[in-house]
Backbone:
C-alpha cells in the first residue's frame, strides 16, 4: 500500500472541519512527538519486537507526513524528491560509472560528495538531553533564578540532609516525581525543560551547521 491514504487522512485532519487539536499544531509543537516516536521505534528494534517495530515506524511516518503538511511552499512529494536526488547523487557506484569494492570505500565516497554539496546554514543541532544541558548550563553559572527553581532546590537540600538512602536514589526519585507531575498535567517535562533552556540562553550543543 502506498502512503497516499495516510496523506489524505492527514489533509482531512488539517482541513476545514478537521480536528481542532491537529489544526492548531505547528512544526515546533510537534517536535516532541517526532522525537518520542523515533525513540519508541528504536526501543522496539532493540527489543527485537518486529511487530511493534513496524507499528512504531508507521507512527514515525505519520509525524513526517504531518510535518511536511505544515511546511510552507513544500509537500511530501518535494521532500521525497529531494531525498531521491541525494541518494542517487551520493551513490555514483550504483547509479553512475564509479567503481567501489568495500563498504569503507562507500563511506569515504559519501563523505567526499557530501563535503562538495552546499548546506543550509543556521541550523540548530540538538546535542544533549535537557538534564545534561541543564547541568552544563548550571556549571557555567546560568540558571532560571525563579521562585520555583529556588524553592525546589532549597527543599531538596533540606530533604537530602535528613533523609536515608543514597544521593543518587533521592535525586532519581525526585526527577521521577517531577516527570509524573508533568504527566498528570499532560506535559512532557523533558521537552518543557529543553524549551526553558533554549528560551533562557542558547545552550552548549546548539550550533549552526547542518548534518544531513
Residues:
Amino acid at each position: 500500500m502506498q502512503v497516499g491514504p495516510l496523506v489524505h487522512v492527514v489533509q482531512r485532519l488539517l482541513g476545514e472541519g478537521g480536528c481542532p487539536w491537529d489544526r492548531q499544531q505547528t512544526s515546533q509543537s510537534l517536535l516532541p512527538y517526532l522525537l518520542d516516536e523515533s525513540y519508541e521505534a528504536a526501543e522496539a528494534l532493540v527489543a527485537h519486537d518486529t511487530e511493534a517495530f513496524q507499528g512504531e515506524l508507521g507512527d514515525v511516518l505519520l509525524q513526517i507526513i504531518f510535518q511536511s503538511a505544515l511546511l510552507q511552499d513544500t509537500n511530501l512529494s518535494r521532500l521525497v524528491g529531494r531525498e531521491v536526488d541525494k541518494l542517487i547523487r551520493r551513490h555514483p557506484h550504483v547509479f553512475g560509472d564509479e567503481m567501489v569494492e568495500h563498504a569503507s570505500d562507500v563511506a569515504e565516497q559519501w563523505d567526499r560528495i557530501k563535503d562538495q554539496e552546499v548546506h543550509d546554514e543556521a541550523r540548530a543541532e540538538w546535542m544533549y538531553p535537557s538534564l545534561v544541558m541543564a547541568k552544563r548550563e548550571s556549571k557555567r553559572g546560568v540558571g532560571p533564578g525563579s521562585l520555583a527553581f529556588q524553592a525546589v532546590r532549597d527543599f531538596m537540600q533540606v530533604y537530602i540532609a535528613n533523609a536515608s538512602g543514597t544521593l543518587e536514589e533521592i535525586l532519581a526519585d525526585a526527577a521521577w516525581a517531577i516527570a509524573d507531575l508533568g504527566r498528570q498535567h499532560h506535559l512532557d517535562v523533558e521537552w518543557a525543560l529543553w524549551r526553558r533552556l533554549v528560551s533562557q540562553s542558547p545552550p552548549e550543543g546548539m550550533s549552526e551547521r547542518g548534518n544531513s
Observations:
- Residues 130-209 form one domain.
- The radius of gyration is 22 Å.
- Strands lie at 121-124, 208-209.
